[in-house]
Amino acid sequence: MQGTILILDAVATNRIMLKVQLSAAWYHVVQSDSLDGILPLVRRCRPDLIVTSFALPDGDATDLRRLLMQDEASAGVPIIAITPQNDRATRLRALEAGVDDVLSQPLDDTILQARIRSLIRVRSGVEDLSHRNSGGFSGFSESPSEFVAPVTFPMPPARVALVTRSAATGAVWRARLRSRLPHDLLTLQTGDIQPLMSEPVPDAIVIELPDRRDDAALRLIADLRARSATRHSAVIAVPNPADPYLAADALDRGAHDVMTRNFCVDELALRLTAQLRQKAKTDHLRDQVRDDLRASHLDPMTGLHNRRFALPQLSRIARKTAEQGEGLAVMLVDLDHFKRINDRFGHPAGDAVLTEAAHRLRAGLGPADMIARVGGEEFMIVMPGATRDSARAAAHALCRCINGTPFRITGQLDPVPVTTSIGVVVTHPPCCGKAQEDAVSRLVSQADRALYRAKSAGRNQVTLDRSAA
Description:
Elements: E1 4-8, H1 12-24, E2 28-32, H2 38-45, E3 49-53, E4 55-56, E5 59-60, H3 61-68, E6 79-83, H4 88-97, E7 101-104, H5 109-136, E8 159-164, H6 167-178, E9 184-189, H7 194-197, E10 204-209, H8 216-226, E11 234-239, H9 244-253, E12 257-258, H10 265-297, E13 305-306, H11 307-323, E14 328-335, H12 338-345, H13 347-363, E15 370-373, E16 378-384, H14 388-403, E17 420-427, H15 433-456, E18 462-464
Parallel strand pairs: 1-2, 1-3, 3-6, 6-7, 8-9, 8-10, 10-11, 11-12, 13-15, 17-18
Antiparallel strand pairs: 4-5, 14-16, 14-17, 15-16
Helix pairs in contact: 4-10, 5-9, 5-10, 12-13
């Protein structure tokens, strides 16, 4: 099955005809005849999309949208409303209320099926981002204990490109939209697509589709959706003249929305606003996923990489340096008597010392070097291309950057003296296979032994592992 569709219509013959159409396309179909009990039904069958008659015995499609918005699990379910005739006022009212599309009788199966595929595809993408954000990275976020109404994301003036076959059509569209939308409107002709790929990339792109004998605009839609620069731009196609088959083709090529009844400035303004609002939501979710990925690799206190990132990264660096025939230095850095700092000055002061130590160590390294916090007061440093002499010199310089200047801590009158011990190993690890994995593990163990000897010898010093000689 491709998904579940709920049909909502008081007329049994309408439901039967729709069920036949949708079942033939391998959708699982659930039916109901009114809004009464709709939320429990939606929670139970979890439809991917709802096809509803605009008028219902106890309300209409706008009331259905309002009801769904009251429930977290149902708020994002797309709605296609069916009207008995092409009623412009009804269509605009439904779009303004958040209904995703309005089709009129007699239903064209081609555009209906394409619209369903497009809406389910968009919803699946949003759900995937939402799941990654809420549960994909365990520990980074928690599900709310009760439903909070969907957030309205701020939507500043956007950059909208109007791509038409002729400059005259673009000028007319732009002039009519300017009085209804606060956005920056850019007009282009179908063959002039380079500005679409250049920064700032348009947030939305409206594309005029001429007759089917000229498929340049359709190819442009597929091209825009495939390119990294424009894949997140909202694309709205406007067949001119109206052509349901061309509109369906545009949806299947990747357009987010189409206007099946040709250009209407009020309808286009509503569809643009809806698409820009959807884009703001998905951009926000995408940013949250990116932030969670970044957080999974970073230590929140110091901003350095954490152990989870450092060990796989050490393996990658070791493989690269071995392939290039270069040496590799691994250092373990430990702040001396850190527990005494916590006990004497308090944990907030200890946290401040860790943060400042991380800053000093990072400042003392080159751009190719890696540093991570791998323990309470322990840091790992990886220096590709290092020799024994350069690694020793770098470790002594890092030692001085910690002990050379006492740490000034907010709330403490006297500066806090801090020293560090560093264990170093320098080697040429093998470049691949199990031998490399074993070599990387040995590197960390050797650096740890060198650190232990530095601690045992009195701290505040650098020790190189003997086996690295």
